[in-house]
Specification:
With 92 residues, the chain is α+β, with helices and mostly antiparallel strands. 45% of the residues lie in helices and 14% in strands.
């Protein structure tokens, strides 16, 4: 699975981590819905850190379609909320 983190680039993430990433994404969604900026910041930072940890960077000169896009690390709660679907940031 290919994930893009805005302003950082793309990473190839193992398919077997999607359940864990979905759980972290749910936390981001819940903190947005609760309008809790401190919890949101922690949840987003945790999600992005885990994607970076399990993902393998894709070289910048290789063009690959992303399966989903995550916000940049310094995104605000409102910016992330605007990016979300009913499922959160990560589909399915």
């Amino acid at each position: 699975m290919i994930v893009r983190i805005l302003t950082e680039g793309q990473l190839e993430v193992p398919d077997d981590t999607i359940e864990e990433l979905n759980a972290l994404d749910t936390k981001v969604l819940e903190t947005c819905q609760a309008k809790d900026p401190e919890a949101f910041r922690t949840a987003l930072d945790t999600l992005l850190a885990r994607v970076r940890e399990v993902g393998t960077p894709i070289p910048l000169d290789r063009l690959v379609e992303s399966d989903f896009v995550l916000p940049m690390a310094d995104s605000t709660l409102e910016e992330v909320e605007a990016m979300m679907s009913e499922e959160g940031l990560i589909p399915g």
